[in-house]
Every structure is written in structure tokens, then in C-alpha cells.
Design a protein that fits this description.
Blueprint: H1 2-55, H2 59-66, H3 80-103, H4 107-150, H5 156-178, H6 184-225, E1 231-234, E2 237-244, E3 248-253, E4 256-261, H7 264-267, E5 270-273
Antiparallel strand pairs: 1-2, 1-5, 2-3, 3-4
Length: about 270
């Protein structure tokens, strides 16, 4: 009887082991099938997204970003189609991993991957902040440089690049905060450095701005009073106004063309001949 009981228990044990092994192998096979199907679906979705982005001409955003000069002549090599499609692909892979983990009852894996999935929106928002921050910084940089060029002031490239760098630093800090990175130490140090620098720069620029504003007002007044085609006499020189530029006036005289600073029209007595 004891031998029979031992035999029955042994058979029962091995039977349970084989049944459990069979169930596990079946689950593994089904999990592999799920993974393969998921990979195929992911490739299909990513392919559709690439085509949609190309039809929407998303590469125009690439052109705007890639023309940005970061430091010196260094430029970005941005590919919005590749970035978005890669991001979507890995999100789908994460979803696939969660599905397989749930099916195989791998609770720990599911929880950790779920945490990663919850973090992805933060990462995406941080990336969007960087992209729009770059576009804003570049637009302001161009505006400053154009302003300096229009009033024929030197240093436009330096000032515009400086402002661009400052904006880029604060955009980067904002993006890092959005991504969950603690930037308190960096922010405090940078704020102190930039604060002192901006005060010094504001004082220097404020002193120089007086002449700039004065020239701008004189140029505005000259363009309001005078017009192309008028014959005028200035400092014993008579001629016809051929062009009124932002900083100069071109006179067509009997001796040829004469180019004068436009503020001369405000600083001197002018005779207008009808």
C-alpha cells in the first residue's frame, strides 16, 4: 500500500509539473505571437504616420529649425518625421510590453513599464518647449540683428547672439523642469550671473540708446516732411530727392548723385523748390 501511495504521489507530482510546464509553454508561444503581431501593427502605424507627416509637409519645420545658428556656424540637424515616428514607435512598443507582461502575470514588469509610460507625456512636453523656444529665440535674434542693421549700428550680431543664448538657456531650464529634473542649483547660479550681466548691459545700452532714438526720430521726421521727387537745397547744394532710405537720403544733383545722412534733413535749413 505504501508503495502504491508513493507511486501515485510521484505520478501526480510529475503530471502536475508537466501540465504546468505545458501551460507555461503555451503562454510563452501566445506571448511570442502577440509580440510578432504587435511589431507588425507598429510598423504599419509608423509607416502611416511617416506618410501623413510628409503629406503635411512637416519638413518645413525642419528647414526653420535647421537654419538656426546655435554657436558660431553650428546648426541643428532636425528631422521631425524621424523624431515623431521614432517616438510613436517606442510608445507602441511600451504598450506591447505591458500587454505581454499582463498576459504572463509579470506584475513587477508591468508596474515599472507603466511608470515609464506615465513619464513619456512629460518628455514630449519638454521636447515641444525646446522646439518652440528655439523658434522664438531665433525670431527675436533676427529682429534684433535687423534693427541694428537698419540703423547702421555695429555689434548687432553680438547682441542678437547674446539674447539668443540667454533665451535658449532659460528655455532649456524650463524644459528640464518639465522633464522632472531638479534645476534649482543651476537656476540660482545662472540667475545671479545673468542678473549682474544684464544690469551692466542695460546701463551701457541705455547710454548708447539715446543717440539711436534721436537718429530714429530725425529719420521719421524727414520721411514725413520730404518725399521722393522734391527739389531741395541743403548747404548750398541743390538736387532732387531720388531715394529716402532708413539712414540716408540720395540727391540727384547737377554734379551727380550725393548721399547724405538722413538726419541732415532735420539738422539743417532746407529750401524746397516746387
Amino acid at each position: 500500500d505504501e508503495l502504491n501511495d508513493l507511486k501515485d504521489k510521484t505520478i501526480e507530482t510529475f503530471s502536475g509539473m508537466f501540465n504546468g510546464l505545458g501551460d507555461m509553454l503555451l503562454k510563452v508561444v501566445i506571448a511570442i505571437v502577440i509580440i510578432l503581431v504587435g511589431i507588425l501593427i507598429t510598423k504599419l502605424i509608423v509607416g502611416i504616420i511617416k506618410k501623413v507627416l510628409k503629406l503635411a509637409k512637416a519638413d518645413k519645420l525642419d528647414d526653420k529649425l535647421n537654419e538656426i545658428e546655435l554657436f558660431g556656424d553650428k546648426k541643428l540637424n532636425f528631422d521631425i518625421v524621424k523624431i515623431v515616428s521614432t517616438f510613436v514607435k517606442w510608445i507602441l512598443y511600451v504598450f506591447l510590453l505591458i500587454i505581454v507582461s499582463e498576459y504572463l502575470n509579470l506584475t513587477i514588469v508591468t508596474q515599472e513599464v507603466g511608470k515609464l509610460l506615465n513619464y513619456l507625456p512629460q518628455l514630449l512636453t519638454a521636447l515641444i518647449i525646446v522646439v518652440f523656444g528655439l523658434l522664438l529665440a531665433n525670431a527675436i535674434k533676427k529682429a534684433i540683428k535687423s534693427f541694428f542693421d537698419s540703423v547702421e549700428l555695429s555689434g548687432g550680431k553680438f547682441v542678437s547672439q547674446l539674447v539668443f543664448t540667454i533665451i535658449l538657456v532659460f528655455v532649456s531650464i524650463t524644459a528640464l523642469n518639465q522633464a522632472g529634473v531638479n534645476t534649482d542649483i543651476i537656476t540660482n547660479n545662472i540667475t545671479m550671473v545673468f542678473g549682474g550681466f544684464l544690469i551692466a548691459f542695460a546701463l551701457a545700452f541705455g547710454i548708447g540708446a539715446r543717440n539711436i532714438v534721436e537718429k530714429m526720430l530725425k529719420a521719421y521726421h524727414a520721411r514725413r516732411v520730404f518725399e521722393i521727387g522734391q527739389r531741395i537745397k541743403i548747404n548750398h547744394i541743390e538736387g532732387e530727392i531720388e531715394a529716402l532710405n532708413p539712414t540716408t537720403v540720395v540727391l540727384n544733383t547737377s554734379k551727380g548723385k550725393l548721399i547724405l545722412p538722413i538726419e541732415e534733413l532735420s539738422d539743417n535749413q532746407i529750401e524746397i523748390h516746387e
